[in-house]
Protein: MBL fold metallo-hydrolase
Organism: Hymenobacter crusticola
Amino acid sequence: MQHVVPGVWALRNVFVNLFYVRDPEAPAGPWALVDAGLPGSAPKVLDKAEFLFGEDNPPAAILLTHGHFDHIGALHTLVERWPDVPVYAHPLELPYLTGRSSYPPPDPSVGGGAMASLSFLYPKKPIDLGDRVKPLPEDGTVPGLPGWRWLATPGHSPGHVSFFRESDRTLLAGDAFVTTKQESAMAVWQQKQEVHGPPAYFTCDWEQARASVQALVALQPEVAATGHGIAMRGQELRDQLTQLAQHFDQAAKPAQGRYVPQPALADETGVIAVPPPVPNPLPNLLLGIGLVGIAAYVLASQDKPAPQRQK
Ligand SMILES: [Zn+2]
Ligand SMILES: [Zn+2]
């Protein structure tokens, strides 16, 4: 666990982060959980919650930046263990949290690394939290976290949000941008700190994603803790974030991909339309190896002289 700034702790779960947040001026006050990790992580999440806030001290709220599988994995167990704790997300994210719609399919043709190529294996069926999940308040306040506000940062997902604390300019940006190159398994393993665009394989609207990064630069954050990678801070953070916003199309947007020419369309009911798929490089590679194998077998068979029948 990493103490990011006073009142914010990050828990890394294999390759994704979730956050415990409390007002540093009110050490006995309420706290909230931001995102909910990978499936199977609930025991660890509960364990750290107890370590930080004491036994039988559930959060005031669970806040979701978005509902991708690696940010909601422990939710089912957590809502059972904390039966009175509400979950909040943006209204445009609710269809994927209430079983109404699947996300736009990930685009494994972008990003280039193993994490991206394997993304077609990631679960994308919606979970159903029923009435346990509620829309974030329209006025931008954050339930359970006075002093914070949320802002819509769509593009990586239709209803993606970020959370910002004005007093020390701390930003929890989810996957609107990240501080590691998430598409590459090597970079994820090394956890090199570097500002990158949103993980490309799930990003379904690149115009919105660019506008969201620009909105976050305008906040001039002092610290940014994102869904993937280690938190970054100060001038280094602001310089790299400014670079990303100014050169978003070259630095973050893939040259080609399913959602590059046109975005997925979604509303409060879920996905309305998606562009046609583009070929997945990994199955193509496997198919290629398979075809080469078959061709080699056929050629080898042809080279063999036909068996002579003994007379
Ligand atoms: Zn995501
Ligand atoms: Zn993520």
Observations:
- The chain is about 30% helix and 20% strand.
- Residues 2-287 form a domain with the Metallo-beta-lactamase; Chain A fold (CATH 3.60.15.10).
- The radius of gyration is 22 Å.
